[in-house]
Amino acid sequence: MAEKAKQRDELGAKADALIQEGKFAAAIEPADACARLSRGIDGPKHWRTFDAEQRLKLAEMAKGFPEDKQQKLRDAMAAEAEAKNAETAKPQDALKLAQTARDRYCELLGEETLEVARIWHLIGRIDLGMNNANGAKDANKSALKIRRKSLPVTHPDLGRSLNNLGFAQSNLGDKTSAIDNYQKAIRIWKAGLSANDPLIVMGLNNLAAFQNSIQEYEEAKKSYTEILAIRQQTLPKDPLDIAQSLFNLGDVQNSLREYEAAKKSHAEALDIFRKAYRKDHPNIATSLNNLGVVQYALREYEAAKKSHTEALDIRRKVPLIDRSYVATSLNNLGLVQHALREYEAAKRNHTEALDIRRKAFSKDHPDIAMSLNNLGLVQDSLREYEAAKRNHTEALDIFRTALPKDQKKIAASLNNLGNVQYSLRDYEAANQSYTEALAIRRKALPKDHPDIAMSLNGLGNVQKSFREYEAAKQSYTDALAIYRKALPVAPPTSP
C-alpha cells in the first residue's frame, strides 16, 4: 500500500507540473491514473480522492478550451505562481499578482470555484504578512465560504482557511471567534490526517500561543502538552522540535506558578539545546534566561545568578544581537543580585539595562519603566531615597501613559513610591500613594491576594506615624489575615 501511495503522489505531482506548464492534454493520463489509485487506496469519498478527481476535471476542461482561453488560464496560473514567489520579499507586488490571478480565474472558471478559493486564501496570507488583519479576515472568509460549499468536510484546506481566519481574528482581538476557528481547524485536521501530521501541530501551536497571550494559561498548557506528546511520538524524533515544546510548556507553567514543573521543562529544553548548538548560540541564552527566571521564583538565587550570568555572557558576544536582549539579561541578573543583597552589583546592572533601553526604545516604553522601577528598588535598599523617589516617580508616569489598562503595574509602582516616601518621612505623600495602590489592588485582585496585604501594611505604617493607632491596627490586622491565608511563610516586617 505504501508503494501505491508513493506512486499516486508521483503521478499527481507529474500531472500538476504539466498543468502548470499549460500542457493540459498531456496531464490527463497521469491525472487519471492518480485518481484511480486514490480511489483504491483511500476510497471514493476521501479528500485525497476528491483532489485527484478535481485535478483530472481541470485538465479535461482546459483541454477543451479554445486556444485563447487556454492562454488566459496559463496567464492566471503564471500570475498565481509569481504571487507565491513574491509573497515574502515583495508582498505589495504579490498582492497585485494574486488579485490579477483571482480575476482571471473568475472570468474563466466562475467566482465560486476552488481555484478562486485558493487565490482568496493566498490573498489572506499576504495580508497577514503585511499586518492587514482586516483584509486577511475578509479574504479568508471568502475562501472559507467557497470551500465549505465545495470540499469534503475533512479536507485539510477547510482547516487551513479556518486556521488563518482565526489568526486574523486573534490579531483583531476577537478572542471568542479566534479560539473557535482554531479549534475547528484542529478537529478537521485530526479527522482527515494522521495523528502526528505537522498541520495538527501547527494548529495546536497557534491556539496555544493565543491562549497564552490572553492569559488562559491552563488551556495553553493543555495545548502545549499535546504538542509535546505528538512530537515525542513522531519518528524520527526531532530533538529541536521537542526542545521548543518543552520551552513553551515551561513558560506557561511559570505563568501558572508551577515552578518545579517549569524548572524541569526548561532544564530539559536547555539540555537539548546544548547538545544541538554551539555553546554561544542565542537559543541557549534564551533557555538559560527562562530557567533563571524560574529559579529566581523558587528563591534558588545562586542557581539563578549562574544561569543569568551565562545568558548575559552569551548575549554580549553575539554579533549584531538586538541590544534589548542584553538589557533583559542585565535586568534579570540585577533582580537576583538584589535578592542576594549584592546591591552595588545590582545597581550597576540595572543602570546599564536602563541606558540600553533608553537608547533602544521611545521615552515612554514600559521596559524603561521596569528598569527605573527595579533601579529604584535597589536604591531604596541602599538608602538612596531621593534617587529612588525620582526613578519610581518617572516609572509611575510611564506606566500611567503607556499601560493605562494595566492597573496591577500601576499599583505596584505606587506602592514602591509609597515605600520611598515613607522612608523620607513624607507621610502625606506616602499615604496618598498607598491609598491609591490599595484601591486599585482591591478592584483588580482577589480579596486575599498578598499584594493587597502589602499595601495595607504600608498604609498601616503611615497611619502609625500619624498616630492614627486605631486605623493602623485595622490595616495591620487585615494585612495579617491575608498573609496567613495566602502565604506559607511569615509576612514581611514593616520597613
Automatic annotation (TrEMBL):
InterPro entries: TPR-like_helical_dom_sf (IPR011990), TPR_rpt (IPR019734). Transmembrane segments: none annotated. Keywords: Repeat, TPR repeat. It comes from the Bacteria. TPR repeats lie at residues 411-444. Gene3D superfamilies: Tetratricopeptide repeat domain. This is Tetratricopeptide TPR_2 repeat protein.
